[in-house]
Amino acid sequence: MPGKIKVLLIDDEKEFNHFVKLNLENTGEFEVLATEDPIVGIDLARRNSPDLILLDIYMPKLDGTAVAESLLADSLTSNIPIVFLTALVKQGELSKNSTIAGRHYIAKPVTTGDLISQIKVILKK
Amino acid sequence: MQNKQKIKKPVVGIKSLRKRMNRPKESRLKKEALEEKERMLEAVIRNSAVAIFVINARHKVVYWNTACEELTGLEAKNLIGTSNHWKAFYDHYRPCVADIIIDDRFSDIARFYKNYRKSDCVLNGIHAEGWYLKLNGKDRYLVFDAAPVYNTNGKLVAVVETLQDISEFKTAEKKLQENEQKMRAVFDQTFQFIGLMTPKGILIQVNRAALDLIGSPAAEVLGKPFWEAPWWTHSPELQEKLRQAVKKAAGGKFIRFEATHLDKEGAVHNIDFSLKPVKDKDGRIIFLLPEGRDITEFLQAERLLKESEQDLQKCYIEFKQTQAELIQAEKMGALGRLASNLAHEIKNPLAINLQGLEYLKSMLPPDKAYTDTIESLIKSNLRADKILKDLLNFARPAAPLIFEETDIPALINSSLFFVDPQTNLNNVTLTRQFAPDLPRVRLDYNQIQQVLINVFINAFDAMPQGGSITVTASQVEDALNRENLRIVISDTGCGIKESDIGRIFEPFFSTKKETGGTGLGLAISKAIIESHRGTIEIKSRYGEGTSAIISLPIV
């Protein structure tokens, strides 16, 4: 589906992935690959070369930051922008669009509108 | 003195009496009468309780009465006809007062007597007195009165000398003097002000301490009404009070009141003054005894004690507050950990809900009833998220402060950046007044920024219809001459009710619960400012506006 933004979503909350995928794809602008398993997520990234990866931080199987390190270490995925999704964000920091360890992040919960606008800012679209 | 009265007139000599008796021309009756008179005189002298001896013009003892024998221990029979009367008083020869009269040596008397004078009432008589040690077994103070006896031709024929032992009187007098000296010493050396006055208030005695205070000699105040003395003249009210007190004390009452005296340098002394009536044995009031105790230092000490008690009380309150704060901090630490975990656990389902609701919204037919319901659910979801964020900010265990030299205008401007979009929405005008040459201040940039954001958000929220916000930053000196950064953020909004002002920093107290306030913003701000050893104060007039005044030490 050329022209669509390919997003990979790695989050241990299956329902969250489900609804984000539906909402983004409903806009017609996105193609969303989603998995609750970080290991599977790394493999999907390698094989599908998404435009952007939405990555949860606190996951029981593998921490989001470790997933990010693994993706950055791999030449196949190292250029893919990673955006952390986290439930632990202070008020104010959201407006700053600031970074964690040099990476972008988006605080949960997030509206679809906010999510799309931030993805576009990061992808400069 | 009694003796002097008895011998006031020159005594007719015994010998002359005899001579007269021997005159043949005198009648037998006259002779008998004279003999009778002589016997009488002899009996009077002999039995007189006063010691008397008589010497003739040749210094021979012609009479030494019983009282004289008893006083001196020398018997008349051993002395009559001799000139040994001096032996009664001295261990070597020296003239007695009677001898001095006979020899007419008054000009020489000082050689023999320290204490002497011419008789007040007998012509050519002499009075002398002094201590005589071991005289007839004991120390005696003797008073000598010697009077010359002249014959009808005016020739000195004898001297009568009386002796009085007034040792007991003298001893008592000496004791009395000593006692008086002691009393005087106490009177004069006490630190209390003491005086004595008549029942009408005329000062008749005053002690040294009282005189020293005003620097006046006794003569200046004695004999005058007490209230006219310098202790009282600085205050007509006190003078009148004293006058009334004198009246009451003269009526038998004990009076006490607090007064002030001015000393010679004009310094004010606080005096515990009292006035006591002094009664004689019949109960009549004969004197009034004024006493004053200087309680200036006592009052000062009392005042200092009260102050230090207040300080102590203050310390205690501060201690209790600190203790409460520590307990609170401990609770908040635990709450922070709990909140942190809780927030994570709740935010994920919230995130799912939000996405799910948005999906439902996109899938449902465009019916207003549906979309309103979904919108309402989405807003509730976002509100729950905001509460969690505020709770996290408030209850998060205090992060260690990271101090950095901070440019204050830049900090304020960056804080405004986060709230700026609202200024356009709310039609708010913003005025910034930063003092030139504001120093860079060491503070935790992120934490102070959070405080400023909170205060700015409150200011915007207070002006939904628009208004103006003024933010000033300046360097000021506090009461202890310490340099402080002062940031004042004032709005022209709705203000805070007086009844709410006192609770404004309480956690979860909010005046805008309806619009999503969690009541944690100012509580967080206060904690942050206090962790910087600064202060934050909210001043407000309901309906007129609010100012937040933040002071931070410049270190």
Describe the overall structure.
The complex is a heterodimer of chains A (125) and B (555). Chain A has 125 residues and is of the alpha/beta class. Chain A has one domain (5-123): Response regulator (Rossmann fold, 3-Layer(aba) Sandwich), CATH 3.40.50. Chain A has helices spanning 14-26, 38-48, 64-73, 93-96, 112-122; strands at residues 5-10, 30-35, 52-56, 82-86, 99-100, 103-107. Chain A has a six-stranded mixed beta sheet with strand order 2-1-3-4-6-5, with helices on both faces. The two termini of chain A are 18 Å apart. Residues 90-101 of chain A have low confidence and may be disordered. With 555 residues, chain B is an alpha+beta fold. In chain B, 45% of the residues lie in helices and 25% in strands. Chain B has 16 helices and 18 strands. Chain B has helices spanning 2-6, 14-22, 28-47, 66-72, 76-79, 97-103, 167-189, 208-214, 218-221, 236-250, 296-363, 368-395, 408-425, 445-461, 498-501, 521-531; strands spanning 51-56, 61-64, 115-118, 126-135, 138-150, 156-165, 193-197, 203-206, 255-262, 268-279, 285-294, 403-406, 428-434, 441-444, 467-477, 483-491, 535-541, 545-553. Chain B has a six-stranded antiparallel beta sheet with strand order 2-1-6-5-4-3. In chain B, strands 8-7-11-10-9 form a five-stranded antiparallel beta sheet, sandwiched between helices. In chain B, a hairpin with a 5-residue loop joins strand 9 and strand 10. Residues 1-10 of chain B have low confidence and may be disordered. The chains are: A alpha/beta (125), B alpha+beta (555).
